[in-house]
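Box 3.1. Reading complex inputs
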Amino acid sequence: MKNRYCLSAILLFLFLSASSAEHNVRTERISGSAGDVLEDNPVGKLKVYVYELPSKYNKKLLQKDPRCLTHMFAAEIFMHRFLLSSAVRTRNPDEADWFYTPIYPTCDLTPTGLPLPFKSPRMMRSAIQLISSNWPYWNRTEGADHFFVVPHDFGACFHYQEEKAIERGILPLLKRATLVQTFGQRNHVCLDEDSITIPPFAPPQKMQAHLIPPDIPRSIFVYFRGLFYDVNNDPEGGYYARGARAAVWENFKNNPLFDISTDHPTTYYEDMQRSIFCLCPLGWAPWSPRLVEAVVFGCIPVIIADDIVLPFADAIPWEEIGVFVGEKDVPELDTILTSIPTEVILRKQRLLANPSMKRAMLFPQPAQPGDAFHQILNGLARKLPHNKSIYLKADEKVLNWTAGPVGDLKPW
Amino acid sequence: MKLSALHQSYLNRRSNSFRSSPTLDSSVDSSGKSLIAVFWLILHCLCCLISLVLGFRFSRLVFFFLFSTSSTNLYSAPFRPDLPIKHLDVHTIVGRNLDPFGANVTKSSSRVVVGRHGIRIRPWPHPNPIEVMKAHQIIERVQKEQKTIFGMKSSKTIIAVTPTYVRTFQALHLSGVMHSLMLVPYDLIWIVVEAGGVSNETSLIIAKSGLKTIHVGFNQRMPNTWEDRSKFEVLMRLQALRVVKEEKLDGVVMFADDSNMHSMELFDEIQNVSWFGTVSIGILAHSGNAEEMVMSMDRRKEIDEEESSSLPVQGPACNATNKLIGWHIFNTLPYAGKSAVYIDDVAAVLPQKLEWSGFVLNSRLLWEEAENKPEWVKDFGSLNENEVLESPLSLLKDPSMVEPLGTCGKQVLLWWLRVEARADSKFPPGWMIDPPLEITVEAKRTPWPEVPPEPPTKKKDQMSLSQGNTDMVIPKQQQQHSTKIRKPKRKSKRNKHEPKPTDTTTIQVSSSLSKHQERN
């Protein structure tokens, strides 16, 4: 009797393992340095309190220019909307673990749609003055349990030009807060160690509308569409993308394996789905929505940006998913790519095919489990519980409210 | 070009100035600094004007020359001089770090530096063929993986039923079917039913396929008339279906007659059948008689003007909602009375009313016990041993349940053809010429002047010389003195111009020569 039970149990186990192995042929589980956290549910792990700011900080800006909802910096707006209706939101600030300030600093656009960062420091400063005077929670920790979404080119340095951004550094008032930003580069002034790097906003519906059947064979080896030289801002070349994009063009424009050009084809998304490798080189800033597009379309991202910090780097093992090429190795890009063993390439494709990977890169409306919003909350939850040292004693001041360029001190 | 560059730089200035104007505004506001600000503004405008004239960024050059001593204090070059580098532009070498402000602020631990970098280009920026090969191998492997994962969700086995018998054209026909089946990307079982029992001839041919074959023998000889032959083939097919039933083979049964030609799309399309399906066949009623063809074509044109055009297609007919309403049958009227009766007749060979090759069925229909077997199918096991079914629809109680495939019969997926040699034509077994040729007979029309012609044999008299061919028959049984070996029949005219071999009298045994034997 017992033998029969044992035998049936073993058979059942084998059958289950076989069936699960069968499922794993198509995709592979993703577990980063923080473990298998992509599918964690943040509800119950943290509580977020959303400050009530006057609408001049958020809604009025959006009314003035609704383009803010569709450009790649739209994450700040959608994060606000998500938090307002999320289960982690609490209306009792005393039990909140994190505090969110709904402010849209990038929603100040030029006629061509680029954000002007010149008023952002003043806007941020004015908002912080407001919350520090109306609520006691800022002064309690000087912002250490507050988080801000700053999806600018160089994060909270609030400038689009790298030199100027470096010169400014992170806004002094935000030194203790946690920054949720798209910019990530190691050993850079504008990246704080405990920032959370998020993907730039890419419109999910637009990408879903261009999906093609997965059995169409991938016949393009390397794909890239974009600028190689920025003649408007860098006419002599060598400055834009630290010369990496120009190097790609000069070395591989004659190579039929590399489908690279500056065209704007209507089949851009479909072409990415027919490619094996998609180049994601740096531009003026190291990050770009190309990474998100490559992940969604199953094209292995080839990241050419030295020292870049990719989104959710503790939850997603980017080394196993993408290919990292140093900027100095660009002339040997074809050798590097063809010398990757095919098993490694197939494994990368399997990891990319994992739906939780694609979900984690997107900001869908309405929010879905496992999407980027939830990954941000997971990241915030992983920082809990707060260290007791962040709570300052009375009259202890750490931040310097008068630091920074003179122009920032003006009221907004 | 220069003008457009100037225009570009002007626009550049505009866009740059648009972006940077607020900073100027903010700096101007500070009191005491206004004079300096104005000075910088004037200098900026001057530099702009000079740049417009010169066509490059003058201000940067000035800064470089002014601060060239301090540039040596800046951090080291971002590119290594040991790498073979070609620079596009002199300015790029010169402008390593023209912005002196940026230098002092970067963190010392950062490897990545802001500023102008060189554009690295390797000495031979062209594709390396070995790498191209490797890339293509990678692409192939990825596509193969895609196919296995996403291609066919579940492909059914194809069970091909081919009735055959040993005759001259068997090698031609069977090789054609075999090669088509070898290309099918799905699992395949090939049931070859042979009239006259299992023979080595057929076994040799089908063994080369590498497919899973079941060679069934049917111990009666194939009759000599087309009508009887098709009836006989029905019996053979039914025998094959019995094998499917007994072995409980699972898949889609299709009838691959050995003289038909199949397209690859046929095999993809029949995967979609659920129980009983039909496809459109192209009917090639070949007559082989050129004069007859011409006459019948004229006749046919007259008929066509009267009636609607008769397409040589047999297949399902559908109404507008893609439901099966009937069948297109090949119009045999033009051939009435002139069709071939005997297998070697030189006339059009007509198909039956409904050819079996246009039908496919799920093998489970034949099984005794199969779940979800529909009720409109007759029980296959209850068929009589020697009952000849009129058409495959006789297997069903309700012929309207047949599924039309190939977008409701619009696609013709295979072609039906019957071509055979004369009934008495001979061919070397296994198509191996062994023993070597010993008997040759002179071609009637070919002038071989040196050698006196041997008296013609009885066989030659039987030949239909009205065709204008110079065909020979080499009977193995009769020993005859050979004079020459003749050339293939269609080149009769050319034979006259070809050089004649001079040592013909010595040729008795032509073992070393490889010539085509003449066969009808």
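In summary: The mean pLDDT of chain A is 87.
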